């Protein structure tokens, strides 16, 4: 059986020296449920990364963001699927978002990221972006 491959995009949203981190819902495999991630989601067929990221943040956070430059990309293999996770530098007009698809959020400096239990892919991305 062929492994499912997902193209996923995430937003690196800054507020001063802090970056927005979001906690996944209690659903899905135990290696991602309730883990922390950068907000974003899957790219649908026919969408580009920018469209997907704007759509995902509107759907999941009722938040209109500006998607800027690509920061980096990693491939990560989970037990039952692989993902290509691409991060974009994003800006928001305000921090007035709603958690419609997450159970928590926080603003942390990269030095504080180790306090959270990240998804495997986001942990790899952090290693790449904040060496």
From TrEMBL:
InterPro entries: MutT-like, NUDIX_hydrolase-like_dom_sf, NUDIX_hydrolase_dom
Enzyme class: hydrolase
Domain Nudix hydrolase: 3-130
Recorded GO MF terms: 8-oxo-7,8-dihydrodeoxyguanosine triphosphate pyrophosphatase activity; 8-oxo-7,8-dihydroguanosine triphosphate pyrophosphatase activity; 8-oxo-dGDP phosphatase activity; 8-oxo-GDP phosphatase activity; metal ion binding
Membership in a protein family: Belongs to the Nudix hydrolase family.
Protein name: 8-oxo-dGTP diphosphatase
A Pfam family the protein falls into: NUDIX
Biological source species: Prevotella scopos JCM 17725
Keywords: DNA damage, DNA repair, DNA replication, Hydrolase, Magnesium, Metal-binding, Mutator protein
Gene3D superfamilies associated with the record: Nucleoside Triphosphate Pyrophosphohydrolase
GO terms for biological process, alphabetical: DNA repair; DNA replication
EC nos: 3.6.1.55
